[in-house]
Structure formats: structure tokens, C-alpha cells
Amino acid sequence: MGDAIFMDQLLLILTYVAVIASSVSGALEARKHQMDIVGATTIAFVNAFGGGTVRDLLLGRTPVFWVNEPWLTITTIVIAILSFYRLDQVSNRLLIFADAIGLAIFSILGAVFTLQLQLSPVVAILMGVVTGIFGGVLRDLLCNRIPNVFRQSTELYATCSFIGTTVYIILHVLQFNALPIALIGALTVFAMRLLAVSFKVTLPSP
Fold first, then answer.
1. How far does CA 54 lie from the centroid of its chain?
2. First CA to last CA across the chain, in angstroms?
3. What is the DSSP track for the chain?
4. C-alpha dihedral over 106, 107, 113, 118, to 10 degrees?
5. Is the dihedral of CA 150, 136, 66, 13 positive or negative?
6. pLDDT confidence of 6, banded at 50, 70, 90?
7. pLDDT-derived band of residue 90, with 50, 70 and 90 as boundaries?
């Protein structure tokens, strides 16, 4: 029972970290597109909650995760406002860094929540990818552009989520301790994304 409570608390903390990182990324992306504070807050909200919402609806987990934890919404609004007004001269590197943190944590959280429902490892991997990338897809659509994850010129994105989540699932099937393998999976996604951006690694062209 104690381990279960600790894991639930850890998942909640990681959710807050991912939401904060995604809120920063979303608000700054909105500012790049010359949106006002309403637009920035909306983009931050969609970026932070889009993937998890789609995941919960597909898995039948209702109410969706942010409805059960209203402080997530408050946190998103506050972070979006602070990012919009207080982060001056933001570099593209900060945007990439914040987005990579959100991608990494959300991908693993998606897989963890799926496994808690005792669904198959394949579904867990897919839900990890959905959770990791779909907020960014919705963000880009609202910014009136083809989502980065679907563009041939974009460095590896969904692939990072897929590989990191697969690493986590394999270690889970082999029955390693839950916390270390979650960290390994998240770090795999995070490191792959930063390396892909640094070295301009993309999927092969047709």
C-alpha cells in the first residue's frame, strides 16, 4: 500500500513538471505567432493537456486527468501568464528544452497509466506516443501550421517518444523496479530529442 501511494504521488509530481514545461513552451510559441495573452493561455492549455486528454478519452478514463486535479489548470494559467510577460528575449533553445521535457515525461506517463488499466504493452506504447505528441499537434493546428511532428524537415520527435516508451515497456515486462525504468524511459526520450535537434536528425526522405 505504501509503495502504491508513493507511486501515485510521484506520478502527480511528474504530471505537474510536464504541465509546467508544456505551458512554458505553449505560451512562448503563441508569443512567437504574435498572439495576445488569451491566445497564449489557450495554446499553453492545449499544449499541456491535449495529449493526456486524448489518451484518457481513448482509454475511457473519465473524468480526464486535469478535471480531477483542478490545480493543474490553475498552474497552467499562472505559468502561461508569467511566461508570456516575463520571459524576455527567449531563445529557440529554451523552447526546444521545455518541449523536450514535456515530451519525455508525458510519453512515459501515458504508458504508465495504460499499464495501470492492465492493457497490453503495445497499447501502452501507442498511448505513450499519443500522450507525448498530441498536445503539440493541437498547438500547431491552432497556430495555423502543419504540425511539426508531421513535417519531413522536422528533427525526430514522435520517434523519440516511441523509442523511449518502448525501452520503458521492455524493462517493465522484464520486471525491473518501476521508478528507475520510468526515469530511464524519460531520459531516453529527452536525450534523443535534444540530440536529434543538435545534429539535425530526420526520418529518411522518400
1. 12
2. 52
3. -HHHHHHHHHHHHHHHHHHHHHHHHHHHHHHHTT--HHHHHHHHHHHHHHHHHHHHHHHT--S-HHHH-HHHHHHHHHHHHHHHHH--S--HHHHHHHHHHHHHHHHHHHHHHHHHTT--HHHHHHHHHHHHHHHHHHHHHHTTS--GGG-TTSPSSHHHHHHHHHHHHHHHHTT--HHHHHHHHHHHHHHHHHHHHHTT--PPP-
4. 180
5. positive
6. confident
7. low
Dist. CA 2–CA 132, nearest whole Å? 29
Lookup: cell for 106: 508525458
Nearest CA to 26 out of 72, 77, 89 is that of 77
Residue with cell 540530440: 195
User: What is the phi/psi pair of residue 119, to 5°?
Assistant: -90, 170
Q: Would the CA dihedral through 10, 16, 19, 23 be positive or negative?
A: negative
Residues 6 or more apart in contact with residue 123 via CB below 8 angstroms: 114
pLDDT given at position 169:
98
Confidence of residue 199 (pLDDT cuts 50, 70, 90): very high
Query: What angle, rounded to 10 degrees, do the helices at 178-198 and 92-116 form?
Result: 150
d(Cα 184, Cα 63) in Å, to the nearest integer? 29
Residues 6+ apart with CB under 8 A from 45: 23, 26, 73, 76, 77, 80
| Residue that is written with C-alpha cell 499499464 in the block | 115
